Amino acid sequence: MTQEQQHPPPAAPRGWRQLARHHAAAITATLVDYLVMVMGVEWAHLDAVVATALGAFSGAVVNFIMGRRLTYKATDLPASHQAWRYGIVSLASLGLNTGGEYLFHVVLRIEYFLARVITSVIVSNAWNYPMQRYFVFARPEGRVGT
Q1: % of residues, the chain, pLDDT over 90
Q2: Claim: this prediction has a pTM higher than 0.85
Q3: CA distances from 87 to 8, 22, 128, 142 (A)
Q4: Which of 12, 58, 63, 101 has its CA 20 to 30 A from that of 94?
């Protein structure tokens, strides 16, 4: 018997529970993102653009770790494979969020913060969640856990 057969990875939550965990991770990552950005500007006196980049990177790291450990319970799979996939999905997400902000704020003239919230919800549900579930943290066929 292999190690995996003796001790299979824990099953990841499915359905609504998994979606709720995805959103909890996304909200936590967003809070980290904004906290690092504000601390960078207010306490470290960094340029706002630099602080935004540091915040976004910090939030992405938190989201990746939470996705790997809590949302998808995929710590038995190689992190390196997940990390490059996460990077690709995140870059596409950046483009979708930017495009959505342009559409809702510039074209449709919705207030920028509300436009950002609308865009974030759409991108999170239509892109981030399915791509993280079926691409970033997906298990090869036949593996237990999801």
Answers
A1: 59
A2: no
A3: 27, 17, 12, 25
A4: 12
